[in-house]
Write a structure and sequence with these properties.
Radius of gyration: 26 Å
Distance between the termini: 34 Å
Helix content: 25-40%
Shape: globular
Structural class: alpha+beta
Strand content: 15-25%
Largest sheet: 10 strands, mixed
Strand order of the largest sheet: 11-12-8-7-1-2-3-6-4-19
Length: 472
Amino acid sequence: MRTIRVGNGCGFWGDNLDAPVQLAERGQLDYLTLEYLAELTLSIMAHQRQRNPAAGYATDFIDTLRRIAPLMREQPKLKIVTNAGGMNPGSCAAAARKVLDDAGLTDAQIAVVSGDDLLERLPELVRAGHPFNHLDTGEPLEPILDRVVSANAYLGAGPIVEGLAKRARIVITGRVADASLTVAPAIHEFGWQPDDWPRIAGATVAGHLIECGAQVTGGLYCKWPEVKDYDNIGYPIAVIADNGSFLITKPPETGGLVNRETVIEQLLYEIGDPTDYLTPDVRADFTTLAVNEMENCVPVTGASGRPPTDSYKVSIAYRDGYKASGMLAVYGAESVDGGNPVWLKAKHCGFIVLARLKQANCRPERMGMEVLGDRDFEFRRVLPDTTPVRSVTEAMGDRDPRERSPIMLRLAVHDPDRAVVERFCRELAPLVTSGPPGIAGYIEARPHPREVLAYWPTLVPRASIQPSVEMV
């Protein structure tokens, strides 16, 4: 049975920078996927594109490509599929083109998938009768339409398959469904028909399992003490067969763990209804799967699926006021009877800030207060030795054992008015000298207001989206 090897070296923007290189060097891959996008990531990229029209993509990908380009010369069949394009796949592709040319890979083509960005089309689509109702609240988008800064549909595997058919070695997309990065190589290599639902469902499950990087190879595993060498954790590889079955493994001589439980934990991650996992490519039923276990790999069979819905999911970010947060350290000692006046003092400081804001006629729409720390804190030597000490007495030396590590007070506010948030930012430092004793204002610099981009999940009719593929 013919198989392809698809490894995912990135689960989000900010993931392990060495993982893609590890997979490219040791994974014997046909395809390397790099998944950079989340709803938060798109909001960050929207901020970047507001400041610079050429920005708004995952710049980590360009650094990674510089390291992988020599391996692409040594492995002429290795291809890369990534959504690093984010809000600006064209600019990302231009930067990638320069890296390839500098590495002597002038013949390596890049395909750019676009069509997911609906920002400019929103007014037209709303006028055409698409309300973009919020999936949780049912509210229509129109009242906040003038505050929207980004709107991206989750495309499927189709345009990626088109790019691969045009002999691209790298396919760069904007927002596509995470699993589609894996589904597309399987459709392209095996020639599956668009309505081959069981096979496409199998590749979708494989893509879902590896889309979060090391989460399926021991990351976040509930039995984490059993995981060896987290510092060298292996990132996942899906070995997909032409019948849609697959197995999950990782590169040899890497840390981490692949067993039935690590796979099932990831299988249940962010899926909603397990009988109806919705993607742009298929509606997959996870309840028909058989998950087995072999040495260093986990075979998965039995996927089933149905045609996808007639809608695409859309991720919208809109301006929603301003926020700020700050922290203060609160010092003191436990009382003889074991009480915790330091915790109470920290809480009291939070109420002082609230009262001072009220006196200034500044009442934030939302405010949160956290008091972090407890009397069971385990003392450790941090520098120069990181070995845990045997007891609190050893850590304290000659100090009074009733003395404690500081309690941390964290305050945060959100308000539509930037001036209200700015006033909050100015109320923390005065506590150092005008509040109770033992307040330290040196944990961080004075906080500053930051614009909030809120998330609006919605749907758009599939027929209104026309993805395009351009070769660079």
